[in-house]
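pasting for the record
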Amino acid sequence: MSYRMNYILCFLLIWASLLVPAGTAAAAVQPEKPPTIDPSQVWLEIDLMHNRLTLVINGVHFKKYPIALGKPKTPTPVGEWKVINKHKNWGKGFGTRWLGLNVPWGIYGIHGTNRPGSIGSDASHGCIRMMNRHVEELYEFVPIGAKVYIIGHPLGEAHMSPRRLAKGDRGADVMLIQNQLKGAGFYKGRLNGIFDGGTEYALKAFERKNRLPVDGVVGMHDYHALGLLE
C-alpha cells in the first residue's frame, strides 16, 4: 500500500472516531462503583491512651488518625458501641461530618471541629474530635452499623484518680458503679450510666451496710469498698 493510501486510511479512521456520540467512549472507561461494605468488616478502634483512631477493614489496620478526646470531668465513653447515624454539617462546632454512637447516657459521636488546635489533647465534652479533612475521609468508609471499640478503663488512666461521682453524673464509670452495686444486691435499676435517684439510694444503702460515710457520693472509700481499687 502506497504512502498516499496509508495517509487516506488514517484520515478516515480519525474522522470516524469523531462521529461517535458524545459520552460513549467515556462511559466505556468509567470504573465500576465500589461494592457495598459489610458493616461487620469495617470497625474503628479508639485508643484513649494515645489519642488515636484506627480504621480497620477486613481485619487490616487501614489508616490511623490523631484525635481529641473528652476532658477528665467529661470522659469519652469506654466500651463497645456502634454507629447509628451519619450526617453532613450536623451542627455548629461539630465540623463537616458527624458519626453518632449508641451510648445510652447521652449524645456522643465522632465529628470534625472548628478548633483544630485541640487535636491530640483531652478537650471535648466526651465526643471524639477529628480534623475536618480526616473525618470527611473516614465518613466515606464507615457505614451505619459499624462497631466502634473505645479502648481504656472506665475509671480513667492509671496515673489519674477516678472521678467523684454524684447524682447527675453520667459515664462508663457510673455504669461500673451500678454494676458493682447490682452484683452486691443493692441496685435494682438499669445499667445505663446515669447517676439517678435509684443509683444514689442504692449507694447510700451500700455505704450504710459497710459503715462508710452515708453521703451518696462515690469517693475513694466507696471505690475501695466496691472492690474497684486496691
